[in-house]
Write a structure and sequence with these properties.
By secondary structure, this protein is an all-alpha fold. The chain has one domain (about 1-55, about 65-140). The protein is built from five helices and no strands. Helix 2 (about 30-55) crosses helix 3 (about 70-90), helix 3 (about 70-90) packs antiparallel against helix 4 and helix 4 packs antiparallel against helix 5 (about 125-144).
């Protein structure tokens, strides 16, 4: 099951690269904020349909959850605006490796301290080396 989830995450990452490639030209045509809005509008409509047909009706109310858990709703559009602005200038590969570097760094911190209710996973040498290699990839792509 874990292997299947890892493959699914890899496919999701590929989708983010496609999204970055699409957002740049769309932002150039309709404006960066309109491109961001279109991505979230289509995503919200699709998610609504999925919830309507597949979500259990007995789940707790969305509004009863702690406010900090809704922070992703703020972070998502910021991420997409950054992609829309940066991808046409620095390239999709540079954007994705930069995002990956930021994600891995912050993920190591979140895991290490068990933030946001996650389990604690200590930062060890292997995890640090993974971050170093991602930063090296960022430097190599930047030179190219």
């Amino acid at each position: 099951m874990q292997f299947l989830l890892i493959l699914l995450v890899i496919v999701g990452g590929m989708g983010l690269s496609v999204e970055a490639g699409i957002l740049g030209p769309l932002g150039g045509e309709v404006g960066h904020l309109w491109a961001t809005f279109s991505i979230f509008g289509v995503g919200a409509a699709l998610t609504f349909l999925l919830m309507l047909f597949f979500s259990p009706r007995t789940s707790p109310s969305f509004f009863s959850q702690p406010g900090w858990q809704l922070l992703g709703g703020v972070l998502g559009p910021v991420y997409v605006v950054i992609l829309t602005l940066a991808a046409p200038i620095v390239g999709v590969a540079m954007c994705m490796i930069g995002i990956l570097a930021g994600q891995v760094f912050k993920s190591l911190v979140i895991d290490h301290f068990g933030l946001f209710g996650t389990g604690r996973r200590q930062i060890d040498a292997k995890r640090l080396w993974a971050l170093v290699f991602i930063i090296a990839a960022l430097a190599l792509v930047a030179k190219g």
